[in-house]
Amino acid sequence: MTAATQAADDLHATQRAAQARRKALAPWLLMLPALVIVLVFFGIPTLYMVRMSFNLHIDQRLYVPGFTFEHYVNLFSNPLFTNAILTTIRLALIASLATVAIGYAFALLVWLKPARWRLLFIGLALAPLLISEIAIIFGWWMFFPKNGLLSYALLSSGLVTEKISLMYTEFAAFVGLVYVTLPYCFFILLSIFDGIDKRLLEASADLGAPPSRTFREVMLPLTWTGILVAFSQSFIWTMGTYATPSALGPDTLWTMGFLIQEQMLGKHNWPMASAFAVVLVVGVAAVMTLTRSLQSERTSFHV
Amino acid sequence: MPVTAVNSALELKNVVRRFGSVVAVNDVSLTVGKGEFVTLLGPSGSGKTSTLRLIGGFEELDGGSIRLNGERIDHLPAYQRDTATIFQSGALFPHKTVAENVAYGLRMRKVAKDEMAKRIAQSLDTVRLTGLENRYPAQLSGGQKQRVALARSLAVRPAILLFDEPLSALDLSLRLQLRAEIKRLHDELKFSAIYVTHDQGEAMAMSSRVAVMNAGSIEQIDTPETVFHSPSSEFVYTFIGESCCLPVRVTTSAIQDKNGEEVGLVLAHRPGEGDCRIYVRPSRLRLVGDATSLPNRLRARIHFIEFLGDVYRYHLKSGALELAADHAGAIGRNVGDTIDIGWRNEDMRIFR
Question: B79, B107, B161: which to substitute to probe chain A, counting the most A Cβ within 10 Å?
């Protein structure tokens, strides 16, 4: 090999290495704008909140810089607070399970129905997302009280004999939560269903499986990942949401969201509110990790 | 009670299926004998797939009856019918391995463990997939997937196998290979089958009998040879094999094209007066040698020439008539030359 070709080869090698570096860098460059937004607007405030939770709360001042575990100890020893945590988890759990069940049935229906119905169903599912949470709450205020739509409908259908109010009950809070998270669940599940060959249902029946068996053996395993994703997304939302359960539930329904608000604005205890928020964030992160570990390793069967 | 012939695996009687105002399957009657391989051949929309789906239980009948081994099955849901379909897409369960896919139907039939293992091994061996038991469908090629689908259906030993265009998604060489293999399996195992296809090559090569379907009805059902050589209708003639149509008007004195001009067409048996369509097949036309001594002749001009590999195809024109004729080699004539072509009586059909 001559020196000239050796030099040319070296040049090529360095060029290729530079190209490889650029290629490795490209995804980071593309992510940069989103990354900056996430770090500046979510990362820094979260860190600030964590720091805040260790500050002191003296003399009714919002906070006094310092370092104490007092708020965390208080949080886990005061039954008022521990009950709030349990209430929130219970409400979020039931609401999420119901949301996933309803969303699953709805998405299955849309998937099975002929394509001409599809747009209508998707429009229906999309509608609640176009209205703000507050406006939806106002809607429920028309629906649940004694002179509301529900009472009237039940009365005129003869199911009840006297006007009833479901306003400010845990049930109303529960319905409100399901309503808010349902569209997200539906779209997550529908996208999973759309990846499944409908012929699989026929193949299963063809081989002798009744519908219940087909559901258990074919549909459930193929949609399991979607169920987990829909559940965790719904759970995260219902854990953190404040407006809906406070506005629709009873005064005694003290969720974490409600207590954070109360500590922050009512009691002017910023460190306590922050500690509560940190626990909430950590709890949600734990649920996400857990559901992720429940997903099968083969997340997709389509190659 | 009417007595049904015991040696028929499947019997369709006056089967009707409508989709809205469209009659997809129109009064179809068909009997498949035990061990017989019947092909439903037709263009898309001819009702062949609908017929198959009615048998499998994926569509509901609007009239008629279906019997499997003498028993009415048309009121049963798909999962209670002793049929097994090989779908065009394969429809393998993506979350199950090859062995689990094959085991599925056996589990539903509650086949004993050791018998199940035996049958899985056996059917995978039949389709030559031994060794791939633990693969997932996504790790298989298109041809392998269809073999698994075939093994899955064979394993349950159904009263009849239903093939829904299983090869149409594969490329040509694989299609020919699997076609031969299905033929071999049928010769070996003697299963009863209905095979839906729009590929006449597949139909001819594999079938005991071919049912040519058009617009929801069976136009002709017979052995591949009979369907090919003695088509019963104009549709069958034009659908099976390549053909050229010569629309002519026969008058007392001459044979004219559609413009009323006389064409140099000599026919051994002159059809009666009026409009008719004469059909010939490009492969049966003679261009050289004894062409002029054949009973039917046409003088035509070479319009253009195509080289198709095995043959040269001469596209010819005579007045408003157009036709094509194949010849194994170049005939030494060029575009614009006028030549005589001839054909035998049995290579021509006249419809009016």
Answer: B79
